[in-house]
Amino acid sequence: MKNVRNFIAVFIVLSAMVSCKNEKSIDELPVEKQAVAESPVQIVVNMTVKKDDILEIFYTEDGSLDFGPKSVRVDVPGKSESQQVVFDMPDDAKLTSLRFDVGQNPDQEEMTVNNMIIKQNDKEFEISGADFFKYFNTTDYVKPTQGGSFKTQKVNGVYDPFVHNKGELIMALKGLQ
Question: How far apart are CA 55 and CA 137, in angstroms?
Fold first, then answer.
């Protein structure tokens, strides 16, 4: 009887070892990547920003050009190659006017906008870098150089580089609603 008990115990241990042989550890199991939900209202700018900076888009929803507290900021790491800068706007935003603050770093080098895509209500509008200044007015702080490239500068010791929409962009924004 003692031999039968030992045989059963050995059998159970061996069975457990064999059945666990094909199981994968938690570290080996495939990990399902969660899909990152894209904001329904989004502005994506493909651009070159060579030094770390903070970019910000102000917007209005009432058709005015009175840019107040409604804005989205993005910290952008400096890179010599172009990168996507994504502004996830509030889901219910109804963009009617835009002001694009193109940096807070007064030591920034020349920047280039390759394109800008504005997405709203399953519609989108794309501005090529070559046409960027057809849709945006410059200020004294922003000097276009070529195509979608520009330099930022101080004026009377103040650094506030931004561009704001022209009428063509306002009409395009209306078409997205």
Answer: 17
Is 43 within 8 Å of 57 (Cβ atoms)?
yes
Buried b (16+ CB within 10 A) or exposed e, 126-135: ebebebbbeb
Q: What is the pLDDT of residue 122?
A: 87
pTM over 0.90: no
Say which amino acid occupies 170. I
CA 103 to CA 47: how far, in whole Å?
12
| Residue listed under structure tokens 């409604």 | 70
- Flag whether pLDDT at 166 surpasses 70: yes
CB-side neighbour CA atoms (13 Å) of 162: 15
The string of DSSP letters for 113-173 reads EEEEEEEETTEEEEEEGGGHHHHEE--TTEEE-STTEEEE--BTTB---EEEE-HHHHHHH
